[in-house]
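Structure ticket #2291
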Amino acid sequence: MTAATHSSLFPRESDGGQIVTPPRDADAVLDGLDPEQREVATALHGPVCVLAGAGTGKTRAITHRIAYGVRAGILQPASVLAVTFTNRAAGEMRGRLRQLGAGGVQARTFHSAALRQLQFFWPKAVGGELPRLLDRKVQLVAESAARCRIRLDRNELRDVTGEIEWAKVTQTVPADYPAAVAKSSREAPRDAAEIGQIYGMYEQLKRERSVIDFEDVLLLTVGILQDRHDIADQIRRQYQHFVVDEYQDVSPLQQRLLDLWLGDRESLCVVGDASQTIYSFTGATPDHLLNFRTRHPGATVVKLVRDYRSTPQVVHLANGLLNQARGRAAEHRLELISQREPGPEPVRTEYADEPAEAEGTARRIRDLIAAGVPASEIAVLYRINAQSEVYEQALADAGVPYQLRGAERFFERQEVREAGAALRGAARFGGNDSLLDDVVELPSQVRAVLSTKGWTTEPPAGSGAVRDRWESLAALVRLAEDFVRAKPSATLADLVAELDERAAAQHAPTVQGVTLASLHAAKGLEWDAVFLVGLTEGMMPITYAKTDEQIEEERRLLYVGVTRARSHLSLSWALSRSPGGRASRRATRFLQGLRPGSVASDARGARAGAGAGGGGAVERAGAARRKRRGPVLCRVCGKTLTDAGEMKLMRCEDCPSDMDEALYERLRDWRADQAQRLSQPAFCVFTDKTLMAIAEAVPASAGELAGIAGVGSRKLDRFGADVLAICAGEESAEADRDS
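Resolution: structure written out below.
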């Protein structure tokens, strides 16, 4: 493995933005690149597809590729167009190119590049000035709904606007919207025919008022390039070489625009990772990446799998997560190889309830900060924004500063403010409110008040703003239930006072604090320490993920979360919602086989059991584990175990060991041979703790071996026969085959 290289060309932000001297010549641009990155940088001709795993330096590879071509005189700076998906990513790319002596290269988002071309060519292609660009389309969508005599609340309005955007990027016209929704198994926020009607009126109003929206920028550019070959030729003479970052997120409309930019040429380099496709609800699809070699049979394909971001322990868990994936994207998954020094094992923690999970997370964060990890290098990631409140409170109580990313603070959300005002009014004038006439207990009063704001006993179908609003209101209902459980005599006025105190306590500093963010908002970011919380069935995967494709996207979302961590990774879940509640929850299925006391739950796991021990030993061992509920106890002293390493050994670290030392050494020798044969670090075969557990248990059957934490179904299938043979005092099956 090649050690991670941090070129002085890329100073950290803490370096104060110092002026960097560009490389002296083209060859110097290649300094510090690993073999695969160098292959990308020197592949300047023909179509190139870079399959780049998380943390593998893809931006480094493609910026050095452009800079090498420019410095070698092969590419003219003005002839290169690099496109990505966010202004932040485009700005970072431009900055790196300048540092490499390749200023003048255009690095833009799809929309920015298209708008620039549209503004320039509109007078020639259409005449007059380009129609005004709408800053926000929500107001026009609201008017369109009113024209159709369809009433939308604030959250439905946001969801319908999102549906119109999805329809446009998938090139779906209003009349075809209902059929397109049905075909894609998409959960529309309300009747699809109504949305199609609103969409049609929205397009009509835009034409009447001579305005265009964000998606029209792409659609109109595509239209001009299709109809005016002279303009298309002019753009193609300008741009000879294209680079597309995050290619797995390309929509059908963006792909159509890219095809028109290219024409019949193949001077294209795309970079992406199908395992990080998490925005399909916006129209993104990995199909263009997965089909690239079919469309371009002569393409150069380079895989970047050396992970410079995360420790081997984090990478190992990330790989294990994808090893259980299914579907087309899973067939093209990348097995990452960490280039960093070993770090701490990921911590998996099961809590009794959600408040305990939040408090435990806050304590561990406080400990990390005390140990020297900056608060700004720590993140708490969850599935939906409504989960943030309990962590905001726990961090505030622990005196830990935090900042929210991609969402308002819980008590600053519109629906929460409205609910608070309604509860405050009910507390003040409840005696005159018929809504509360027959309602006595506090939680029922809260439910009655919030029912006027959109709360219902059952959550709305699908995702989106309506679901987010419901989740926020449901969090207030749960808070009321918990509050009255702790204070049975509490009144509505007491609850309002409690809400006010909580809101005031959460005005923590918004800089240099722990980041609270949804998994979607965390894409493209990284931290030293990441806490993935609320990993229960129904939340991960989310309850409205029904189809196989939707479930697999949820798995990829968790994978993105795992790969945000550089060193410290924590995964946690709670068995019940509130203290004293029924422990009816279970950890996400995605962690089966990846945590102590579990095995893979899919068909692959069952096949592994049949192959390794016969008779489905793994399935039986897994069933036995599922029957064992409650805490894991030390088999020597009986103490409850919480450390992952101790849970593997089923004993405290300092309790006496009955390990067979000779067996342990034989297993270590065998592991070293396996690691060399597989070209992997030794811990990827089995960790030291797992070998110790095997040497202590001396399993005699596949079922007993499967019962040892760290021996998942995949490893049982791969190494089970060898390990059992060594435990029996025989040569390994591999040695027998070699002889």
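Closing remark: Residues 362 and 398 are 7 Å apart (CA to CA).
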